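Anyone up for a design puzzle?
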């Protein structure tokens, strides 16, 4: 049995505990039951959802639960416990504590009964009864404790949860648990302030969410606009985290403006696409166009990404692209200080201007930082606080910084600080932030100014090393800056708000009116002036020059002799076009005080001979003209930690590595002239990263160097590298070995199997590498093996010993021989495309963790029947397996099957058909020209029949109806709409139909199932792939009351051939609605792009309808079918009826007649009754024995008119037009 609980919603009105809860979930379990099975999968699934989870499997157990563990349970937002753990007093104590938290702090308990009958827990029978009996004997002197356990078990059994005997497979059970826990966590802390101290954030987040309108399927761009420090990024971050689980791909691009200053829009776009598409070494490169494959991938995804701090609309257009790039429902959130940027990119309708905090919110936020509670401590302190609120005018950053600076100070100090604050001449935020700077000591001020002017966005640990070598106490100094909210750390990078950065630069500017007397220089004009004049510049400690902001600059050989105190020198060129800084007469001197030297495109062959770099910590000389660093060999750089000489194409050699005893990172990527590097010392314990990518003349890796701490070694693109030394096996800490494109590499040394820490081995495109070491299985930590396009002919049997291997790619390894699969328990993705494999090992089903299997372009005739045992398999690619004859039963959880161009497939198993009916499967059988057509028809109709009515939780209660657009789709061979389809058009992209009215006593239609069929014109198939990769259908329905509504359905396809079929279901919220007429318009693209769809698109189409006209039917078959449908995998859309509709009278003439009320069925019925009565009266009123000719003619004329009217009345009734 298991359970979950969500956090308390209660809080104090006067104080709040600001300690972060370390865990979102607490897992309590009986280890022997589920540790290595269900628990491990659940734990991993929670972790993937970013749900911080604690499990007590490493705690030492005793008779009593520890106070520390009790505190952990209290501090967790969610608690989860496991099956059959009633025999453990420890577990039962945890359960009692969990339920106590439910009662006292409002935690929500969500039980999971794993392989347990809930009635056994409720009634304390079975194993639970045995456990309690045992405890009564053992704790006979503490029966009250046993009674508390019994009550806890009974209480838990009464709570709604999950039963693993009902919800199968386990993957679905885990998915439901994780999704539910995630939803509950997302709904927590929605009060005016939360535990993170974000006051008033919820009201602002909701306004942004209303603009997002997640229910809409259009592609929408949202702008968040406001001044610096007002909270734009914070709001965007909160919104992102609340809705991120609703999108297939997502990315938060922080500090876009800064990134564009340091790089190009193309580089940032590549970074965003890499994160969204999950690519490896993903580089688009071209500035104007995207590859069709990338466009297609984006168009098939519902993406969410945030562009934070954008200041130029040209950059924004390059980053975002057109609206048609993204799948339906995609959302783009942009934060900017410039409203015009947002308006130019046409999101003016969806701009949210961030409001300042009101006085109440401002007081709460200020108090949280000044008093560590939500209100001031007393009346007078409240008055002082209100003075601060009035001064800051609702800017959150200013409130937070001032609150921190005043925390812990006495009243007199407050009064003094506020008086000082009031004397500031201007009321801008920078003046306020300066007050916190004034509280720093000289050491902290220097660190703050270095970060503001130089190190913002840089790696925290690297900056600490540089600052320490400058004589600053970086560890304590950075800690104090964090405490005073002057900086923050995000992903190990030093970050600082723009206002604080500007404040630091203003402080430097006010040091002196003359730039040469400033301590730090970053303005291009100032730097140009100082470097090109002969005046002293002894005050300058740091220079940071963006070379792209100058035209050309020539320096004399003695240009740096006047910079005696220069510690940091950075000449960077984000554009890397032409060399801007020239040294026509060479360079004689660089300051010996330099700790950081960064010079892009350094124009000389070596560094100055008079430069003594003994204090240098980091050396960056990318794309330089260096042939060697210096001419002397006896220089020793004892402090150097980081060296980057990448793309220095003329570099022939580097100094002896023994001269760099502290060096940790060496980047020599793209040094195409580098032939060798060596060391007079055998062991180097500090180097952790060695990057030699694309050193095209590097022939061998040194055999006499032992890099004992090396973690990453990259030799990608070293096309002349012919062998690796056996000493490679001594790199015991190596985790990543990249050998991609080493075309001359013929073998791997057997010693490589000694690398027990190796996680990733990349041998892609090593075309002369024909085998792997026989003892490959000894790489016990290996997780990723990439051999795409290599010459590998056979995988050694020992590969089955790789228990941690989760990714194996051997695409393009022609003639590959596979060993039997007897291990590989962690393998999630196996790709063997275009290997021309003739047989797949029969024990394929032993790969129990397999999720993705790619086998396209092979020569096997059958798939092992054991594949059905791969219960986690999600995607199976069999395309272009032209010798495959038969499709066996596949795993029930399979979501996508691509069997395109399997031309030999003739039939499929009955179990395969049954499995398709019970699954949510996207299946491509196009070009399977020999496949029995009756099989295709059976697949389609059984699938449609299996769709039962949705559960209440999936319905849009606010709408009149809910449209479920299924992600299932099916491509089958053929060139005609199937004969059995109810409505079809053999030449056109639209069709309409009138539905026969039900009898007066029948139920209205509450549930409609629709099958769509479309065939593209040959010229449109290619267009669809380039444009949207989507076929859509606009459905229009008219009810018996004249109301109308539209619904959209679409088929997302990466490949379009032959017949495309997909499904939708519509569920009405009331039985009063009855469809009378329907029309369908097919086109290429999305409804949001309707005005831009291709003129030549669908040229044949069909629709098949199934009505469920008895909502109250309760037979077992209906329940069984309904349980098979994965409604949570459908795209839902709320439908709203329009009471009055303008109809196309040419297309619907009868309906137009009804709307104009020119003639009604009531009038016809009355006329008929009158005429028949008249005929009878004439007949009975005549006193003649024989009818006169005139009477007979008149009577026949009346009868004729009656018959005509009767016929017309019937026609109206048939088409659903009533009084």
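Challenge accepted. My sequence:
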């Amino acid at each position: 049995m298991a359970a979950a609980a969500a956090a308390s919603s209660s809080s104090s009105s006067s104080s709040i505990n600001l300690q972060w809860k370390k865990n979102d979930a607490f897992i309590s379990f009986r280890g022997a039951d589920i540790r290595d099975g269900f628990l491990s999968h659940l734990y991993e699934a929670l972790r993937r959802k970013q749900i911080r989870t604690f499990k007590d499997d490493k705690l030492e157990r005793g008779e009593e639960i520890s106070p520390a563990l009790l505190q952990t349970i209290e501090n967790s937002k969610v608690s989860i416990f496991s099956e059959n753990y009633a025999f453990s007093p420890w577990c039962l104590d945890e359960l009692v504590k969990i339920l106590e938290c439910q009662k006292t702090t409002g935690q929500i308990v969500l039980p999971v009964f794993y392989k347990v009958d809930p009635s056994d827990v409720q009634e304390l029978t079975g194993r639970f009864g045995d456990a309690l009996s045992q405890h009564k004997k053992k704790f006979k002197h503490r029966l009250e404790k046993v009674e508390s356990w019994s009550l806890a078990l009974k209480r838990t059994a009464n709570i709604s949860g999950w039963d693993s005997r009902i919800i199968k497979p386990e993957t679905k059970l885990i998915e439901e648990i994780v999704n539910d826990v995630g939803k509950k966590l997302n709904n927590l802390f929605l009060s005016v302030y939360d535990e993170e101290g974000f006051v008033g954030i919820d009201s602002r987040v909701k306004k942004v969410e209303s603009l997002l309108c997640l229910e809409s399927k259009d592609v929408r761009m949202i702008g968040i606009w406001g001044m610096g420090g007002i909270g734009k990024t914070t709001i965007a971050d909160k919104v992102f985290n609340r809705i991120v689980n609703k999108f297939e791909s997502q990315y938060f691009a922080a500090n876009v403006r800064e990134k564009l200053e340091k790089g190009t829009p193309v580089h940032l776009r590549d970074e965003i696409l890499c994160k969204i598409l999950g690519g490896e070494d993903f580089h688009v490169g071209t500035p104007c166009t995207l590859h069709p494959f990338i466009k297609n991938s984006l168009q098939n995804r519902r993406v969410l990404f945030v562009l934070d701090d954008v200041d130029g609309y040209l950059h924004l257009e390059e980053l975002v692209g057109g609206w048609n790039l993204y799948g339906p429902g995609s959302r783009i959130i942009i934060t900017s200080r410039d409203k015009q940027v947002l308006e130019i990119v046409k999101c003016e309708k969806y701009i949210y201007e961030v409001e300042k905090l009101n006085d109440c919110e401002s007081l709460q936020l200020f108090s949280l930082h000044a008093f560590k509670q939500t209100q001031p401590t007393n009346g007078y302190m409240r008055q002082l606080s209100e003075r601060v609120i009035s001064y800051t005018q609702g800017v959150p950053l200013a409130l937070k910084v001032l609150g921190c600076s005043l925390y812990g100070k006495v009243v007199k100090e407050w009064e003094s600080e506020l008086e000082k604050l009031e004397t500031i001449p201007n009321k801008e935020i920078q003046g306020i932030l300066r007050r916190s700077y004034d509280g720093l000591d000289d050491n902290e001020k220097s660190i703050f100014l270095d970060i503001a002017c130089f190190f913002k966005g840089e790696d925290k640990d690297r900056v600490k090393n540089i600052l320490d070598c400058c004589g600053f106490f970086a560890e304590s100094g950075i800690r104090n800056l964090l405490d005073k909210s002057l900086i923050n750390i995000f992903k190990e990078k030093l970050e600082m708000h723009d206002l604080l950065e500007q404040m630091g630069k203003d402080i430097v500017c006010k040091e002196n009116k003359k730039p040469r007397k400033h301590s730090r220089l970053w303005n291009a004009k100032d730097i140009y002036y100082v470097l090109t004049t002969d005046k002293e510049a002894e005050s300058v400690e740091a220079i940071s020059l963006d070379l792209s902001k100058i035209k050309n600059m020539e320096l004399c050989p003695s240009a740096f002799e006047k910079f005696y105190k220069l510690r940091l020198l950075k000449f960077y060129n984000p554009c890397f076009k032409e060399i801007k800084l020239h040294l026509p007469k060479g360079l004689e001197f660089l300051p010996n005080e330099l700790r950081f030297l960064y010079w892009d495109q350094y124009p000389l062959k070596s560094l100055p001979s008079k430069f003594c770099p003994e204090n240098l910590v980091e050396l960056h000389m990318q794309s330089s003209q260096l042939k060697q660093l210096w001419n002397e060999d006896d220089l020793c750089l004892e402090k150097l930690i980081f060296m980057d000489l990448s793309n220095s194409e003329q570099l022939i050699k580097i100094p002896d590595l023994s001269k760099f005893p502290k060096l940790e990172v060496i980047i020599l990527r793209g040094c195409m002239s580098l032939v060798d590097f060596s060391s007079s010392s055998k062991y180097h314990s500090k180097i952790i990263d060695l990057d030699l990518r694309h050193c095209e003349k590097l022939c061998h890796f040194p055999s006499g160097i032992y890099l004992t701490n090396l973690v990453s070694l990259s030799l990608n693109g070293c096309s002349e590298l012919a062998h690796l030394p056996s000493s490679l096996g001594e790199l015991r800490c190596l985790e990543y070995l990249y050998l991609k494109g080493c075309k001359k590499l013929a073998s791997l040394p057997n010693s490589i199997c000694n690398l027990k820490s190796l996680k990733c081995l990349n041998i892609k495109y090593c075309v002369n590498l024909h085998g792997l070491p026989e003892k490959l299985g000894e790489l016990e930590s290996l997780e990723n093996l990439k051999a795409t396009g290599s010459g590998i002919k056979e995988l050694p049997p020992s590969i089955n010993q790789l228990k941690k291997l989760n990714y194996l790619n051997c695409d393009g390894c022609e003639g590959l021989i596979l060993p039997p699969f007897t291990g590989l328990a962690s393998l999630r993705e196996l790709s063997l495309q275009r290997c021309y494999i003739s047989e797949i090992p029969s024990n394929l089903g032993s790969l129990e963790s397999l999720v993705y299997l790619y086998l396209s372009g092979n020569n096997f005739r059958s798939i092992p029947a054991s594949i059905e045992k791969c219960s986690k398999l999600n995607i199976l690619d069999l395309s272009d397996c032209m010798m495959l004859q038969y499709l066996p039963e596949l795993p029930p959880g399979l979501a996508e099957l691509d069997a395109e161009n399997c031309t030999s497939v003739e039939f499929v198993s009955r179990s395969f058909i049954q499995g398709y009916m019970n699954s949510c499967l996207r299946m491509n059988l196009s070009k399977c020209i020999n496949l029995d057509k009756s099989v295709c028809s059976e697949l389609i109709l059984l699938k449609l029949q299996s769709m039962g009515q949705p559960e209440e939780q999936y319905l849009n209660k606010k709408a009149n109806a809910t449209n479920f657009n299924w992600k299932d789709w099916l491509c089958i061979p053929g060139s005609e709409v199937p004969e059995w389809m109810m409505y079809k058009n053999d030449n056109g992209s639209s069709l309409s139909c009138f539905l026969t009215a039900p009898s007066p006593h029948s139920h209205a239609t509450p549930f409609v199932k629709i099958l769509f069929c479309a065939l593209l014109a040959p010229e449109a198939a290619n267009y669809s792939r380039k444009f949207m990769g989507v076929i859509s259908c606009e459905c229009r329905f008219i009810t018996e009351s004249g109301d109308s509504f539209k619904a959209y359905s679409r088929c997302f396809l990466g490949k379009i051939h032959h017949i495309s079929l997909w499904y939708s279901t519509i569920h009405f919220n009331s039985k009063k609605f009855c469809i009378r007429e329907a029309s369908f318009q097919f086109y290429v693209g999305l409804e949001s792009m309707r005005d831009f769809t291709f003129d030549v698109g669908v040229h044949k189409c069909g629709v098949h309808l199934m009505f469920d006209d008895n909502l109250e039917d309760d037979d077992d078959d209906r329940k069984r079918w309904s349980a098979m449908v994965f409604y949570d995998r459908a795209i839902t859309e709320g439908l709203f009826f329009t009471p009055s509709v303008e109809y196309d009278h040419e297309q619907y003439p009868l309906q137009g007649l009804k709307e104009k009320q020119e003639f009604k069925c009531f009038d016809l019925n009355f006329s008929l009754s009158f005429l028949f009565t008249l005929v009878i009266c004439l007949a009975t009123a005549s006193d003649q024995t024989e009818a006169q000719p005139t009477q007979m003619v008149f009577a026949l004329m009346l009868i004729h008119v009656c018959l005509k009217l009767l016929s017309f009345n019937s026609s109206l009734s048939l088409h659903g037009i009533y009084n």
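A detail worth pointing out: The chain has 31 helices and 45 strands.
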